[in-house]
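anyone seen this seq b4? input:
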Amino acid sequence: MSNDMLLNDVTVPVDLRSRLLKFRVHRDHDVEEETKTGRELEQAEQYIALSDKVESALETLSNNLFQELLGIIEDKMTVALQEVLEQPIQLRATIDWKRNAASVDFHIERDGNTENIMKGQGGSVANILSVGLRLFALTTLDESKHRRFLVLDEQDCWLRPDLVPRLVKIVRDAGSALGFQILMISHHDSANFDRYADRTFRLIQPGSDGVSVVVHDPAPESPDDPLS
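predicted toks r here
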């Protein structure tokens, strides 16, 4: 016999009938909440089942993008190295992933042979690579928070004097293309910068009047320039 029949056919005190009706309301509400919770639990289980696949897909995408970006750096820096050093070398990078973080080892290749960037060229490769990586890093910063200004302190220290103008030209061209203002500090003769720098400041050893500064504004670049 159903509860409805009991309520209809049996004389029940008013307060008991009221309590039974409240129980029915609570029961119906609990059944509705249980059904809703069951649906939410089912959706959550579906999301959990997909989470591993989504995480794997995102990791693969991230790795692919990083590899693509590194390939661009390899290509651009190879061009810079060849232009400055005039040698048939190529920059190569090896990625090692540990704990979801990438470490990159750079080296150069010459005729299929691997050379250490710090030893094979007496540090000149490291000079050029350091400049390129700094320029690249600056392009990734938020322009609204970081001014596009770069200081290169002794980044030509391992270059022969006759190669310095080639590096200066690359820095000048990159800065112009990327909208950077670049200050280069060097112990090389300031004449090595005159051809491509917008302005040079030569600091003269202290005399009786202290350190003196000689400012030079280079003449316009000649169309016959061998590096143009």
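Residues 78 and 90 are 5 Å apart (CA to CA). The longest strand covers residues 89-98. kinda curious what u guys think
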